[in-house]
Amino acid sequence: MIIYKVKMKTSVTIMRKRNACSIKLVQSKLAVFVLLSLMFFQLQASNESNCSIEESQLPIDFQNTLDSLQKQFGFPGATAAYVLPDGTNGTVATGFADVELGEKMTIQSRMLSASIGKTLVGATAVALAFEGVINLDDSLSHWLSNRQWFMHLPNYNKITIRHLFTHSSGLPDHVYQIEFAKALSQKWYDQGNPFSPEDLVRFILDLPPLFESGKGWAYSDTGYILLGLVIEEATNKNVFDVIAERFLIPFNLTLTTPSNSRCLQNLSAGYTTKDNRFGLPVKTTSLSAEMLWHPGFEWTGGGFISNSKELAQWGWTLYAGKAMQYPYLEELLKAVSISRETNEIQYGAGVAIYRNSPLGNVYGHSGWIPGYCSSLRYYADYGIAIAFQINTDIGIIDSPTQVLHEMEIKLAEIVIKNN
Known about the structure:
The chain is 40% helix and 15% strand. The protein is of the alpha+beta class. Helix 1 runs antiparallel to helix 11 and helix 2 packs across helix 7.
């Protein structure tokens, strides 16, 4: 019995020692595990911190570049935006939306986007063609021959829809007719829209064609006015409603709306020269932020107000092939050459195409209307869209320096470098 008790005590002592050793071993392993875990999470946090630093560098550099450009060229204010291949986007602003009132430009500020609206009009024509509503090689006479003025159009019996949106119709541009400039200088005071679409067409009636349809290239806003009339004739709807239903509403472009009123919410004041050829006031807006002249006369030659974020988003959606359920890019980019000497710059369905530029193939459009300049570019080799808007045309349209082009290059290089 005594021996047994001794053995029991010895066994218990040994077991206690073993348990103590096991506990210490477990504690030791646990300590090592905790230490390694802490090291892992610290390393991961460090990596995430580094990633955040890298990711945040693009908007910082983009902002700094726009600020630098504003100082270099001296424009009142501007906004700029980018969309990356994965859909990530960023928007920045600089300067003033209204100099006299001291209002800062913000990323929500809107401006007239002018001829960038042609991208929406051209895309609508392509969409209607895919749906069989129109044929892009339809003669213009098929749709508009019932208009009293139709046979007074230059090349009236040879123009097709495709000629209209590629600027290969041979039509003059009403915007650059002396009679139009004179009429606008006398009518911009009117409260309503001073010119209907058909009024605009009348400024080129009975003029000689610039060339035979399909045999050359000349930019013509009048051609896009006629295209808008065709879209309305074919759909029996207001052209802006057609565009909204197909593109603006589905892609949530809520800040992109027709510029068909003097009251345009969140419009930045625009600034133009005193001696502008249309006799317009040097500032586009009144103290109540209403436009002093009605922008609706632009119609489907442009026709929209937007901000840089939505312009970039639209460009990325359109040129990345995401705007329609059809394989439309080939048709959209089916283009004619702008110059007889070189094929480097072409024009498709409301899109300028730059082949083999220093940044590869580039698609897009620029826009100008007194007081505002805009640019939209999609860098196809990188899958990146960039847009910017400036609230003046002073020193831009009339400058020997290619301001818009220089800004496009500098902003694109920053985004491509940081992507």
